[in-house]
Design goal:
- The complex is a heterodimer of chains A (about 160) and B (about 575).
- By secondary structure, chain A is an alpha+beta fold.
- Chain A contains four helices and eight strands, in the order βαββαββαββαβ.
- Chain A has two domains: about 1-80, 2-Layer Sandwich (Alpha-Beta Plaits), CATH 3.30.70; about 80-155, Alpha-Beta Plaits, CATH 3.30.70.
- Chain A has helices at about 15-25, 55-65, 95-105, 130-135; strands at about 1-10, 30-35, 45-50, 70-75, 80-90, 110-115, 120-125, 145-155.
- The longest helix of chain A is centred in the middle third of the chain and has 13 residues, at about 55-65.
- The relative contact order of chain A is 0.21.
- Chain B is an alpha/beta fold and about 575 residues long.
- Chain B contains 21 helices and 22 strands.
- The chains are: A alpha+beta (about 160), B alpha/beta (about 575).
- The interface of A and B includes residues 22, 62, 66, 70 and 163 of A.
Chain lengths: ~160, ~575
């Protein structure tokens, strides 16, 4: 099952390498990973998407906890949560396809953020499923480049992951 | 020792390192000098509190520090240079990590401005050591050194212990640059607060389950030894008349001479221990981690057992075998809490059921009980270990290498005290034994310290005979020489129709002459009747290292042995018998 794990990590050199290394070393999967400092410059917030059965996910969270630089973590799947991913797609946009791409981007509430005479760059934000659906809606022949940020997540309601 | 003088002392980074070690109570620093650590060595030279032990290979320095930690419970300290010095220490760091041994390893590094430029003797030691240590850090500002060293010892020794590596660029130690020195008295980390006490609700649950058991077993591992909880464990076992088995790492945490001790369990565990585990209805696991060398096939593992698992590391619980009642905490306070609850309840286990259980266990014990055939003309390794145990009254520090001799020592020495059986259980590091024995002997000069080894393992760090001469380390080396890599040969006998692919050690040195060349005493034992006089002579020579080259029967296998893929109680019992 797919899980989104949110981690507060000491913003120190080597901390990220240690965390990523743990996944490689123990054979866990990383489907996506986003990381950036928070409003507190000493902390990084990391969102990691992984998959595995309950036993594997339990081991992942326990092993992450053991890393000295991991301050706190939560498995977002344990409660209602929001997830968002940002995607930039560069597509061929000439002839009839030019209007079709525009319409499709509108339907998905994407924005065209860069234009040339022959290409559009579409920015789209949403769940990973939505981004997948957008890619499927476009003809593969017109896609030039896809950049995805990986998932960022946060719990719904008053629940927080903070110090 | 404190540094709290009224005026703040100004020290160089190099001097701060040594002073911080002294303030931490480090007596011996094991190491080897080199370019990147020369400032530190110069600082060492100018003081007397921290004594340096010069090994002949950095791996030995790590094993010495590691063995000191295993014997004393306190972290050992190591200093090596950058590049090859650091990489030579890697095996020792991994060895300590796998067995949860506290150790602080200081590795030199090239100057900060050269890092990343493939400078001479540069290696990414932080990267290399990351997966094999509990934590690692680098020094970026010399003034941080005291806090970093304090933090390293704290992390190494608290929670589930382990090695910590500190990488020190050379420019952090320049003698002319001085900084105010203050050694912190404590360290607090917001991201690391190991749990100490167990959850009281879980402990209650565990006690209730334990008291309801009809076929209980206490399965105790290395955590009891590192957690200093032998006394509490023994008290609990004896209060409830529980059968006790130890893991390879746990030997000595319960007195082996006691009738409730049923031997080591696992791949080469005793017949009765493996049977008792398999048939138990309750397993109380204390500071043990259900390692694959214990469980055999986890799918067939102890089908009837309710499992209570006490461990400081939550990740060790339900990792390979699901625990029904997990208790996270240091084993000592958890066992104390259990004892207190039991005292309040004043209840014991079902006496009739327990009596029946013990009858069954005694029947198993009678069936095998560690027997071996001592009839052959050549010396049997089991017999050698038994005699070693006899002459040292079961009280020696026994440091083992890895292989058949390790298993024979584990099975036949009979450990009655904790911290006396020192071996590389997790990583299985050949070459561990001699440096380990040196580390113990240096710190416990009045005790008998033995290195049980084989002609394969001993040659992996034999250069340390020279270090032994320099520091007068009178260890006794029991070289069980069968001319083969015995455990490899055993597997080849059992699984590869005795095709001895590279398990035969042709062209062995004359170990007696070799020992003499290093300035020690060598004794060769080829006949059974020579053994006891040789042992007597060796242990009478209090101040001498004695290398006993004991020629043993090369055909001997270690039994019992788990049948691969089977349950705990599926075992080969001899070359011709199996369960």
């Amino acid at each position: 099952m797919r899980h989104i794990i949110s981690v507060l990590l000491e913003n120190e050199s080597g901390a990220l390498a240690r965390l990523v290394g743990l996944f490689a070393q123990r054979g866990y999967n990383i489907d996506s990973l986003t990381v950036a400092p928070t409003e507190d410059a000493t902390l990084s917030r990391l969102t990691l998407v992984t998959h595995g059965n309950d036993q594997v996910i339990e081991q992942i969270t326990k092993q992450l906890h053991k890393l000295i630089e991991v301050v706190k973590l939560t498995d977002l799947n344990e409660s209602p949560h929001l997830e968002r991913e940002l995607m930039l797609v560069k597509v061929k946009a000439s002839g009839a396809a030019r209007d079709e791409v525009k319409r499709c981007a509108d339907i998905f509430r994407g924005q065209i953020i860069d234009v040339t005479t022959s290409t559009y760059t579409v920015q789209l934000v949403g769940t990973s499923d939505k981004l997948d659906a957008f890619i499927q809606a476009l003809s593969t022949t017109i896609i030039l480049e896809v950049v995805r940020s990986g998932v960022s997540g946060i719990a719904r309601g008053e629940k927080t992951l903070a110090l | 020792m404190t540094s709290q003088t009224k005026q703040t002392e100004m020290l160089s980074g190099a001097a701060m390192i040594i002073r911080a070690l002294a303030d931490e109570g480090v007596e011996y620093l094991y190491g080897y000098p080199g370019g990147a650590v020369l400032h530190i060595y110069d600082a060492l030279f100018q003081q007397t509190k921290v004594k340096h032990v010069l090994v002949r290979h950095e791996q030995a320095a790590t094993h010495m520090a590691d063995a000191y930690a295993r014997a004393s419970g306190k972290a050992g300290a190591v200093l090596v240079t950058s590049g090859p010095g650091a990489t030579n220490a890697v095996t020792g760091i991994a060895t300590a990590y796998m067995d949860s041994i506290p150790m602080v390893v200081l590795t030199g590094q090239v100057m900060s401005h050269l890092i990343g430029e493939d400078a001479f003797q540069e290696t990414d030691m932080l990267g290399i050591s990351r997966p094999i240590c509990k934590h690692n850090m680098s020094v970026r500002r010399p003034e941080d050194i005291p806090a970093i060293i304090k933090k390293a010892f704290y992390i190494a020794q608290s929670g589930r212990p382990g090695p910590v590596v500190i990488d020190i660029p050379k420019d952090m130690t320049i003698p002319s640059q001085t900084f105010p020195y203050h050694y912190p008295s404590e360290v607090k980390l917001r991201s690391y607060q190991p749990k100490l006490k167990g959850h009281s609700g879980q402990i209650k649950k565990a006690v209730t389950a334990l008291l309801a058991a009809k076929r209980p077993i206490l399965y105790a591992g290395g955590g009891v030894i590192m957690g200093g909880a032998s006394k509490e464990l023994t008290e609990l076992a004896q209060l409830l008349n529980l059968p006790v088995t130890n893991t390879l790492m746990g030997l000595g945490c319960y007195p082996s001479g006691d009738k409730q001790f049923i031997g080591m369990l696992g791949m080469h565990g005793s017949y009765e221990a493996n049977q008792t585990m398999h048939n138990a209805d309750l397993i109380l696991a204390v500071g043990a981690r259900f390692d694959d060398r214990v469980t055999n096939n986890t799918k067939k593992f102890c089908p009837d057992a309710t499992i209570i698992h006490i461990d400081i590391d939550p990740a060790s619980i339900s990792k390979t075998v699901n625990a029904h009642i997990p208790i996270v905490g240091l084993v000592k306070p958890v066992l104390e809490d259990m004892l207190e609850l039991l005292a309040q309840k004043k209840k014991k286990l079902d006496t009739a059921a327990l009596k029946k259980w013990w009858q069954q266990i005694d029947d198993w014990r009678a069936l095998h009980g560690g027997r071996y055939d001592n009839a052959a003309p050549m010396l049997k390794p089991q017999y050698v270990i038994e005699q070693l145990s006899k002459i040292t009254k079961g009280n020696a520090y026994v440091c083992s290498d890895v292989g058949q001799h390790q298993m024979f020592a584990a099975q036949y020495y009979g450990f009655n005290k904790p911290n006396r059986w020192i071996n590389s259980g997790g990583l299985g590091t050949m070459g561990f034994g001699l440096p380990a024995a040196m580390g113990v002997k240096l710190n416990y000069p009045d005790e008998d310290v033995v290195c049980v080894t084989g002609e394969g393992s001993i040659q992996m760090n034999i250069q340390e005979l020279s270090t032994c001469k320099q520091y007068g380390l009178a260890v006794k080396i029991i070289n069980l020489n069968n001319g083969y890599l015995g455990m490899v040969k055993q597997w080849q006998d059992m699984n590869y129709e005795s095709r001895y692919a590279s398990s035969y050690m042709d062209s062995l040195p004359d170990f007696v002459k070799l020992a003499e060349a290093y300035g020690h005493v060598g004794i060769r034992v080829t006949e059974p009747e020579q053994l006891i006089p040789a042992l007597e002579r060796a242990f009478a020579l209090k101040d001498q290292l004695v290398f006993l080259d004991i020629h043993i029967d090369p055909k001997e296998h270690v039994y019992p042995m788990h049948i691969p893929g089977g349950a705990m109680n599926d075992m080969f019992l001899s070359k011709t018998e199996r369960t």
